[in-house]
Amino acid sequence: MTAGNRVFRIHWVPGTDRLHAVCHCAAEREFEDPVELWEWLLGHPVGHTS
Amino acid sequence: MSWFPRDQWYVAAYGSEITHDLFSRTVCGEPVLFWRTRDGVVTAMPDRCVHRRFPLSQPPSRLVDDQVVCGYHGFTYDAGGKCVAVPGQARVPRTARLLPYPVVEQDSFVWVFIGDPAKADAARIPRAPWLVDPGYTTVSGMEPLNARYGLLVDNLLDLSHETYLHGGYIGTPEVASTPITTEVDEDAGIVFVSRHMDDAECPPFYAKSTGLQGRIARWQDIEYTPPCLYKLHSRIAPVGSVPRADGTDPDAFHVEVVYAITPETETSTHDFWAVARDFALGDEEVSAFLADSNRTVVLQDVVALNVLEQVIANEPEGYQELSINIDTGGLAARRMLGRLCGRS
């Protein structure tokens, strides 16, 4: 795991088809579509209430 | 906006390719002339005479000591690109000069900086130390790819294709069926994609090279530093084996698979590949097997991507792709490349 200050982390939720996205601001959210996931992560800080 | 990232370092060649002889390779659309001086230093400058553009790598252009003589009219340049002689007159025009490229020889590669030379910082070149580490044995090669570099980036960031395109070599069912973890370090400019298969079939590539039989733990940890350097840290071990708390990993076999992805033109790419291992050191039979197998795998990708390039070239504008979970890392890489190209 990288230890930078601005790291996006995306985990594939075990046993599901869902992706769990964690922003560097600690906001997190689950997605079924990686395109929507990246739009949300890169939209930081819009909608990133953790 | 550029079709490739400017102001970046690219691998132009292996150091072993550059001798005291003229060598030309096109990098990001720019023909670059290389030679190694008698002092062993690699030079890089435009492969075009300033006079009438004749390629300086093209016979009868020739190297005389550490000067290149244009084979068309005899313009002569020193190793720094300065024109030192022109035909029929004593005065050499002040503007008769080839602007050298910043060049660094490191980790077996020759890196050139494409862009504004004032922005060239050699400390930004990503490292691949295994390729010259005596604790590893390395095989390597380079294949020409008639496809845009982005297709190779897509390919390497999503290794689930190994199951289908490289079955019988490096692909097993577990690669495509095992979930990935993706991390993007925005400050360092690195995309990480990890796939840890804890109980997997051992593909022939690793069974024959390591001697491991039966099921294995197979970890794939990708580290891509756009635009050029891609590293796959591959760990092969008996099922149940994990690295020790002190960081040592004596039960595992480690293979560092390194790619340098260098655009040649907008629709062609230099596909440099290297495989460094920390076992069977110096074993020529294992080296020959891994070199042959990896080249076969690379060529399977080349065939597929060449076809894909033609598909893309002939499709109407606005084709809508579909992305799924396996593409999470590839999408991150595309975005970084787009940003480096000047797209928002």
From TrEMBL, chain A:
This is Uncharacterized protein. It comes from Lentzea jiangxiensis. It comes from the Bacteria.
UniProtKB/TrEMBL annotation, chain B:
It holds the Pfam family Rieske. InterPro entries: Cholesterol_7-desaturase, Rieske_2Fe-2S, Rieske_2Fe-2S_sf, VanA_C_cat. Keywords: 2Fe-2S, Iron, Iron-sulfur, Metal-binding, Methyltransferase, Monooxygenase, Oxidoreductase, Transferase. Residues 9-112 form the Rieske domain. Signal peptide: none annotated. The keyword Iron-sulfur applies. GO terms for biological process: methylation. GO terms for molecular function: 2 iron, 2 sulfur cluster binding; metal ion binding; methyltransferase activity; monooxygenase activity; oxidoreductase activity, acting on paired donors, with incorporation or reduction of molecular oxygen. This is Vanillate O-demethylase monooxygenase subunit. The lineage of its organism: Bacteria, Bacillati, Actinomycetota, Actinomycetes, Pseudonocardiales.
